[in-house]
Amino acid sequence: MNLKDELQKYFEKFGETLPNDISDTAITDVYNCVFNNIVVENGDASTYFCYGMFYEYKIDSVNTRKFYKMAVDLKYIEAAYRLGCHYHDYYISNKAKKYHLIAAESNHISSIYWLGYIYRTEKDYDNMLKYFLIAAEHNDPDALYDFAGYYQE
Length: 153
Prior knowledge:
- The chain contains 9 helices and no strands.
- The chain has helices spanning 3-12, 24-36, 45-57, 61-73, 77-89, 93-104, 109-121, 125-137, 141-152.
């Protein structure tokens, strides 16, 4: 079994897959992090994203945030989405919104939905509807449900 297959098998335990754009260097770096506890801090965006996933499932929020932020700084949009979700899970709404906005600017539909959700909890119904509508237009099932639910209330 090669390194990539071993990593894929590891992340599948958490319902995750490796990014399609992961480089060979990133595979080696992430493998060393997961199996040898060696972290390099001069990697590429996909390396930092995978480190973030690794630490997220180790329930290490300090390193999860650190590495997702490093990936976001390198314009890795999925890391912005994941960081927004991470902050949402920790009830840090302003940071959740910040990172979901970054991802939404690149048309990340799940982040667009989450912005609608955040605005709903803030009772900012104009923005809630704006983001739910955008996500619903892209057939996001949660947005369709919440958008319809708003009008039933």
